[in-house]
Amino acid sequence: MMKTPTGNRSHIAIYGNRNSGKSSLFNQIIGQNIAIVSNVKGTTTDPVKKNMELLPFGPVVFIDTAGLDDEGLLGELRVEASEKILQRTDLAIYVHDSTNLDFDSFEKLKKEFKRFKINYLEVFNKIDLLEKEQLKQLQEKYPSALFLSSFNDKAVLNLKDKLVAILRKNEEEETLIGDLVPYNGKIVLVVPIDSEAPKGRIILPQVQVIRDALDHGIKTYILRDTELEEGLKDLQDIDLVITDSQAFKQVSKIVKKTPLTSFSILLARQKGDLAVFEAGASKIASLKKGARVLISESCTHNHSHEDIGRVKIPTLLNKKLGHQLNYDFKMGHDFPKELNYDLVIHCGSCMFNKKTMLSRIALCKENNVPITNYGVVLAYLNGILDDSLKIFK
Ligand code: SF4
Q1: Cβ of 232: how many Cβ atoms within 10 Å?
Q2: Alpha carbon distance 364, 344 (integer Å)
């Protein structure tokens, strides 16, 4: 389970002011001294992350963030980094210092929790330093909060149980193909092995589909695009063909009547919002010369002359529209706050959790900017979007 990719883990982030005991709590939860703890305000600078199994729930990543009341130029940058973590937070723990209560940061953050639809748990730390009467008053005033000392193992175990209960309540059955193909059904995966293919392995979206098929008792056949036509002659009653987006057009000519979709479209449905992406693609036709397009990729990789985001999609878009658009490229967690664009085109985001994509979709909505994704755009540009979405309708 420790090999579960970060994108498939629930993200639990710890927020609060400096010196509220966030890092001690983080260390106690994960059972290791990873975050540096001291009485000096602002000891946590960059967010600290640790993958762990939160039993009996499953794989999660805990994130310790810098204090929200940090000051100065560097302090502001640290607060900004903490706030960026919000976009990938599935569940937040807000830590109050019971001996030094200050609700300003909390009230501000609560608005962001609401904005990005983040569940949160309020924790009052350092209760061992309170008088009995003070504690009683706080408990009466904040009945749904947890009161603890991060050095009390039993209290931290209780906190973990609470986290598990919240995560389980919000857990959705997420499947890539389990709801599309019956048990014992057959799928063909088309995996081109060109200069873009990583040496000696297949990429994460393909691995995830294979695993999902195994989980759901679906028989899987894997072929390169170059052997597809011959290979299909050996196979009968295929329920679904799933191809790499770049080979979509070529593959659609070969499979004809069998339902066809792409890895990117499956991920778009699982990690994002297919209807939003479809609507985003429909705006392409109205993009004027020089329109601003943001191409956003969740992971950083070397770029080649065949790069899908930097080369193929811009070239195809310019060709389709008959004029040049203006492209900006962002990678990893670098997603701009100010979305001054006419369209955002996002990769399948297999390296990020669903929350990150949903937060980005929410930011686009706030800014009135349509958003779509690679697989949807390629299907649209190849005139096969409707066909590739049929299986979902
Ligand atoms: S660019 Fe996006 S879809 Fe492609 S491997 Fe990276 S995270 Fe996954």
Answers
A1: 18
A2: 8
CA of 212 to the centre of ligand 1 (A): 18
Query: Buried (b) or exposed (e) across 131-166, using 16+ Cβ within 10 A?
Result: eeeebeebeeeeeeebbbbbeeeebbeebeeebbeb
Which pTM value belongs to this model? 0.80
pLDDT in tens, 274-306: 999 999 999 999 999 999 999 999 877 666 656
| Residue 10 CB burial class (10 angstroms; 0-12, 13-18, ≥19) | buried
Most informative mutation of 299, 303, 360, 378 for ligand 1 (most atoms within 8 A of CB): 299
User: How far apart (Å, rounded) are the C-alpha atoms in residues 199 and 12?
Assistant: 34
- Ligand 1 contacts (CB < 6 A) are 203-204, 297-299, 347-351
* Per-residue pLDDT tens over the stretch 163-214: 999 999 877 777 899 999 999 999 999 998 877 777 888 888 899 999 999 9
Residue of minimum CA distance from atom 6 in ligand 1:
299
